[in-house]
Amino acid sequence: MKPEQIISKLKQNQYVFKSLLEGKPQAEYLWRPQSNKWNLHEIVCHLLDEEILDFKRRTKHTLETPLESTPAINPESWVQKHDYASKDYNKTLAAFLEERSKSIKWLETQIGANWNNVYNHPELGEITAKQFLNNWLAHDYLHIRQIIRYQYEYFQAHADTSLDYAGNW
Fold it and tell me: What are the backbone dihedrals phi and psi of residue 120, each rounded to the nearest 5 degrees, phi first?
């Protein structure tokens, strides 16, 4: 896919995330499908961090200064390091959606950029700006799938009837 197509899908996903995540009561966004799984609150915090500290930063870096190193990241550690538990769910969701808007505006100015620029990732080797862009969209889809599964499991755990008639998940 061309960069403008990926950017368009990232923009569409902003509305998907908003639709899936807005208006949740605290009991729902703090519920965990399993004790070792993230809740919706942590997923939203993660999406905001990834938007700022990972995908936008690395895409921009690879387009503009690919020969310089970038700060290492560890998204799994951010839950504690960035104190996700202290964050307000609704404010964090609003911040993520605003950051996505900023990312889209910036990306739309980069259509003609050299998407073949290469960053030498210390663990993964050569990654082009286009690969970072593609993986940004793939990351969206992974979390959309995760959120939908979460919502199904939450509903299943709280439904007052059998859901067998709906079909198998």
Answer: -90, 95
